[in-house]
């Protein structure tokens, strides 16, 4: 590395050499302070609420047994798949669009988003009921309510708060209700019928929407009379692009959340272990999603994406992914033994596969929104999702039939890392365009 002339000059003085070295080390640390601060801001209450939700599962497992927790997880898997589809393109493209929009357009964008997603959820409810009944859970009502509770996550206002870079609002609107509901749920599953647990989750989401609407109305009052620039984005593209978006996200949801129910139908004996690892993996990926939120808020600050921030976000995301891989490879046996009250047995191979799955799933999701979409590669992102899902779901099913839960988990571990490789090749070699500032070291 060639130092600037001013720094080369001071190297002639031994006493000043240490100052130069310290500055070379301190500069990157100062640059990391902002993105890490954003990650921390978006992570506090979601992390606490996740911990509290994980306290519910052992009590649920101990009181209602495998029939209880499998019915809950089956419904949550189906509902989570529906939420991905019903959210349309807003969680992926919304933050980037909101960061570029004017104040008045952001408010209109949120209203449009909520209206579109509400219609989608309403249309999906009958399908959810049929899918839950077809899967044949031991507790059908619990399964259906769990599916509905998770489907309502499609209405979450997270993308809006990321786009306006207001983590404090996300904490209040989403983190606090989720934390309160999960703490209340501990008492519900210990004392009351199991169906009260998903009902509490539904109430929590309704509270989130109420609080979020209060913040958005405040923004509307503050933006009264504001004039937005011509060409300000109004929302994700429609037409064929909307069709590609819905198809790709639907396929991704099917792969991510319906592989468990599919295995339950094809190889019932393999489902408990696969479902346990999948539940832990989804919880960890959702928690690590706050890292993605922080990075998205950081790279979108000021309405101009700087090339250095894109590269920095990739490096930070990769570091977190490999850290999660290592931690879960060691901690998975303990975590699953605790969560499922000793009803599943986990060996070292399963633990490593769990770590690989979580690291790859997090990194592939993160790179989609911090590397590809800010560079105008949303279509590429959706095509990758579609291809990976169309290959992944049948591959997991075949692997489950041939190799049981271990075979299914091995395929689930390989697919996201293949996607990551494609994302890095396409994203890092992309010629900057649009609002990306081609300044490699500017962060």
UniProtKB/TrEMBL annotation:
Keywords: Membrane, Transmembrane, Transmembrane helix. It comes from the Bacteria. The chain crosses the membrane at residues 39-60, 72-90, 119-138, 144-163, 199-216, 255-274, 280-299, 311-336, 348-372, 384-402, 408-428. The lineage of its organism: Bacteria, Bacillati, Actinomycetota, Actinomycetes, Geodermatophilales. The keyword Transmembrane applies. This is Membrane protein involved in the export of O-antigen and teichoic acid.
């Amino acid at each position: 590395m060639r130092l600037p002339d001013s720094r080369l000059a001071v190297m002639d003085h031994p006493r000043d050499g240490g100052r130069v070295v310290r500055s070379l080390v301190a500069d990157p640390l100062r640059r990391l302070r902002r993105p890490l601060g954003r990650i921390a801001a978006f992570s506090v209450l979601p992390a606490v609420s996740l911990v509290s939700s994980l306290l519910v599962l052992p009590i649920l497992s101990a009181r209602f047994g495998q029939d209880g927790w499998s019915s809950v997880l089956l419904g949550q898997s189906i509902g989570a798949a529906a939420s991905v589809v019903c959210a349309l393109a807003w969680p992926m493209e919304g933050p980037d669009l909101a960061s570029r929009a004017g104040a008045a357009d952001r408010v209109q964008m949120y209203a449009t988003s909520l209206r579109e997603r509400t219609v989608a959820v309403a249309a999906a409810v009958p399908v959810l009921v049929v899918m839950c009944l077809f899967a044949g859970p031991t507790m059908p009502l619990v399964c259906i309510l769990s599916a509905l509770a998770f489907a309502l996550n499609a209405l979450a206002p997270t993308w809006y708060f990321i786009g306006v870079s207001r983590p404090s609002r996300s904490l209040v609107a989403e983190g606090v209700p989720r934390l309160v509901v999960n703490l209340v749920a501990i008492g519900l599953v210990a004392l009351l019928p199991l169906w009260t647990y998903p009902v509490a989750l539904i109430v929590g989401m309704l509270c989130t929407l109420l609080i979020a609407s209060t913040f958005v109305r405040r923004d509307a009052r503050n933006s009264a009379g504001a004039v937005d620039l011509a060409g300000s984005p109004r929302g994700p593209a429609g037409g064929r692009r909307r069709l590609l978006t819905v198809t790709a996200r639907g396929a991704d949801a099917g792969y991510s959340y319906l592989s468990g129910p599919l295995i339950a139908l094809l190889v019932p004996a393999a489902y408990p272990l696969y479902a346990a690892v999948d539940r832990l993996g989804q919880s960890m990926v959702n928690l690590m999603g706050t890292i993605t939120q922080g990075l998205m808020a950081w790279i979108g600050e000021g309405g101009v994406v700087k090339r250095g921030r894109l590269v920095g976000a990739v490096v930070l995301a990769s570091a977190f992914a490999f850290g999660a891989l290592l931690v879960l490879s060691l901690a998975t046996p303990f975590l699953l033994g605790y969560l499922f009250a000793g009803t599943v047995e986990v060996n070292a191979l399963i633990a490593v596969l769990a770590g690989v799955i979580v690291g790859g799933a997090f990194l592939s999701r993160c790179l989609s929104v911090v590397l590809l979409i800010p560079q105008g590669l949303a279509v590429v992102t959706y095509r990758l999702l579609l291809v990976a899902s169309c290959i992944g779901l049948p591959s997991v099913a075949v692997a489950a039939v041939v190799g049981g839960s271990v075979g299914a988990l091995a395929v689930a571990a390989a697919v996201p890392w293949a996607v990551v490789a494609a994302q890095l090749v396409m994203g890092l070699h992309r010629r900057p365009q649009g609002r990306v500032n081609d300044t490699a070291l500017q962060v």
